Amino acid sequence: VTPVILYLIYGFQHGFFENETTGRFLPQLWLEPSYWRGWLRLLHDSVSFAGLIFGLLGLLAVQNKRFRYLLVGLWVGYVVYGLIFSFNISTHAYYQLPLIPIVGLSLGSLVPVIIDHLKQVNSNRLSHLMVYGILLSGVAFSVLLVLRGSNIETDFESEVQTAIEIGEEIDHNPNTLYLADAYGLPLIYHGELSGEFWPSVSDVEFTAYSGGLVQSVEERFTNNPIVDNPEYFVVTNFEEFARQPELEAYLNDNFPIIAETDDYIIYDLHTTNAITQNTGG
User: Fold this and answer.
1) How many angstroms separate the CA atoms of 128 and 115, rounded?
2) Do 1 and 65 meet the contact criterion of CB atoms below 8 Å apart?
């Protein structure tokens, strides 16, 4: 613990943790239903409500005092962690990672209780073997699910080819706006283009909660801080695009589509040569 504490003190003293902490603690979200809904949704996606409930039951079943105090500390720490990182805990799935070992340790505490109870109910050796068989089958089934899950979409060749195709379509343009997965980083790399990522709904909400300036779609086009005169708008994240009807309407009303497939849409922003002409600037 001491090295971590010293590292944190050093980081805050020298200022390189400031960007990491700015806007992370947003206590006003505690009063927002969306915060709790988002946290519960991601919690369910990570360990399921059943895992959470049985994990809490396992906490009550711990016999060893020191281990119980350890688990209680971990559970309390997770809750405090979620309250401090209020925005991220409700929007970013990987912020649930600390919960997984906590639930695992808690569930493990239930196993001896179940086995002891079964021994009292039925001392037959065959019954014991059946119980162990069921437990091992459960572990094997879980491992199988993990292995199957790890094989899903491990081939990113199609995504790479899509990015290459987009890059060729817009001649690897350096002044491109894009709404894509992973903040557009795979698209930038494989498509050999550059520009600015168009903010997602979550990004806009974060800006609002942290006291930043929230701009309309038209204002973002005219006051773009990185791309002064964007030439193309690329959409590959259709789910996020559907969450922004104002953006979709603005693009469709003002700019032609030069390429559209099941994987992407490209809008040509050259129509008026400058965005400001289209917005009355």
Assistant:
1) 8
2) no
